[in-house]
Amino acid sequence: MLELHDFKKSYDGRLVLQVPDLALAEGVYWIQGPNGAGKSSLLRAIAGLTPYSGRIVAGGIDARCNKKAYCRIVNWAEAEPVYPGFLTGRDLLQFYLDTKGGSAPATAALLEAFGMNSYLEQNLGTWSSGMTKKLSLVLAFVGNPKWILLDEPLITLDTAAQATCLRLVGEYAATGCSFLLSSHQPLDGAAFAFETLLVCNQTLERQL
Ligand SMILES: Nc1ncnc2c1ncn2[C@@H]1O[C@H](COP(=O)(O)OP(=O)(O)OP(=O)(O)O)[C@@H](O)[C@H]1O
């Protein structure tokens, strides 16, 4: 379960999004809304990366009270990832494995799925935007997450990688992992059931 209680996200006193009360059961959720509606801000808040008011609880763990445990079960990939160019992909992956845990075979399968082994040892400063995006997705799947937040997961990916991403979401969802996806692109080819959440008038609504 992912719960938001009296959630508000503001910048410089300007309210962007509020969610009075929301409880999301295990599943896949597609957050939709126009540019600037607050989707990324919401995901960043749930990921614990930006301040907010109210309470967020995932898997019974309060995001503020037990941040370390919370961050072990909530993973996140941003829309346009930027990483230190002097690190290799392997360096960053190892850091995530050290902090998030996770099995070597599962990680190897993710790298294989996105076809990343040939350039993992290169400095990230030399990677294309699509290569970097694939790494951000691999990092979001690393460990033992209960919730994976993917902000615009399909942008900059080639069609094969888009299909891989959607396949992985379906496979992980089938094992009990839940997802919040924000995407302006249709989830064409998705072989998993999902519920739509709509950001409208500065609130998040279930679309019935
Ligand atoms: N760091 C920030 N400082 C001030 N305002 C911000 C900041 N980040 C986002 N905003 C504002 O918050 C609002 C929501 O932005 P956000 O990026 O969350 O929208 P979004 O729904 O993800 O948009 P898009 O679909 O274009 O990616 C926008 O008005 C934006 O200008």
Automatic annotation (TrEMBL):
User: Domain named ABC transporter: which ranges?
Assistant: 2-208
Where in this chain does the entry annotate a coiled-coil region? none
Output the InterPro entries linked to this UniProt entry. Answer: ABC_transporter-like_ATP-bd, ABC_Transporter_VariousFunc, P-loop_NTPase
Q: Which SUPFAM superfamilies match?
A: P-loop containing nucleoside triphosphate hydrolases (SSF52540)
Keywords in alphabetical order? ATP-binding, Nucleotide-binding, Transport
Superkingdom of source: Bacteria
Q: Which Gene3D superfamilies match?
A: P-loop containing nucleotide triphosphate hydrolases (3.40.50.300)
- Which Pfam family is one of this chain's hits? ABC_tran
Instruction: State the name under which the record lists this protein.
Output: ABC transporter domain-containing protein
User: Which taxonomic lineage does the organism of this UniProt entry have?
Assistant: Bacteria, Pseudomonadati, Bacteroidota, Chitinophagia, Chitinophagales
